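Researcher: Next sequence.
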Amino acid sequence: MLWLFIRMGKYKSAIKMFKHLEDYDEDDVNISEIYCLRGFAYYKIGKKDEARRDFKKALKYPIHNDWVKEDCEQYLTELEEI
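Model: Next structure:
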């Protein structure tokens, strides 16, 4: 569902869907992916601090998809340049 909101450009809906990520189990296989996607949604609506926070959190958890590490690192680099 989160992917659908992001693909449709409904970034605020994606953020709202996972507003309480802190309530998720840290052992969840997808936690890094979810933080990365929420960070991307924040990035797209201009909330750079929130995006940076979520990208960093995504990298702290075990990463099961290569794109998560690549995307988070790319966006963090871009945010540092702003």
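Model: Helices lie at 2-7, 11-17, 31-44, 48-60, 66-81. Residues 72 and 78 are 10 Å apart (CA to CA).
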